[in-house]
Design brief:
Largest sheet: 8 strands, mixed
Helix content: 10-25%
Shape: globular
Low-confidence stretches: 1-6
Number of domains: 1
Number of strands: 8
Mean pLDDT: 88
CATH superfamily: Vaccinia Virus protein VP39
CATH class: Alpha Beta
Number of helices: 4
Strand content: 25-35%
Structural class: alpha/beta
């Protein structure tokens, strides 16, 4: 997959090509026709990489109007349009209320060391399909929980200063007598 050079602006912290390619590679078997949600989307590089790799639908949520402009431009260049692509302008976690479906893959790249990341993660269980996966990009020193609100950490991979953490639904059943 050829990598495009993303815009570099002072307010942006774009995902590196190495991390983006590792992410798509790790999700490769899940991507065909998958419904993907890209949170804290920025320029949309994660969701668009999934779109180019064959996902069926991608929904982006981004709050920054400056980044939104880049996202719309990049989605247009990639040929991503309704109904296969939807872009929501809104602040997380509040913007989750605008979703009406579940997703097979949920990607998130929240601002480092922000409460928005953990707060949003805690609310994602209802938006995750039964066999789905959530992937958060974060600074490797940030401590995200191993279990949270029906989700359990499956694995965490480090790429320099960046970590990718993968959560799935916790299907363990507790029986009460």
């Amino acid at each position: 997959m050829a990598s495009r050079r993303l815009p570099s602006e002072p307010w942006m912290r774009p995902t590196t090509n190495k991390v983006r390619e590792a992410l798509v590679s790790s999700l490769q078997m899940r991507l065909p026709q998958a419904r993907v949600l890209d949170l804290f989307a920025g320029t949309g590089s994660l969701g668009l990489a999934c779109f180019k790799a064959g996902c069926g639908r991608v929904v982006f949520i981004e709050s920054d109007r400056r980044s939104l402009k880049y996202l719309i431009d990049e989605a247009t260049k990639a040929g991503a349009k309704e109904p296969a692509c939807r872009i929501i302008h809104g602040k997380l976690p509040l913007a989750l209320s605008r979703l009406e479906e579940q997703f097979d893959i949920i990607l998130a790249d929240p601002p480092y060391n922000s409460e928005d990341g953990p707060q949003t993660l805690a609310l994602l269980t209802e938006y995750l399909a039964p066999e789905g996966i959530i992937v958060f990009e974060h600074h490797h020193k940030e401590n995200y929980p191993a279990e949270i609100n029906g989700l359990k950490l499956e694995k965490c991979k480090r790429y320099g200063e960046t970590a990718l953490s993968f959560w799935i639904k916790d299907t363990s059943v507790s029986c009460m007598s």
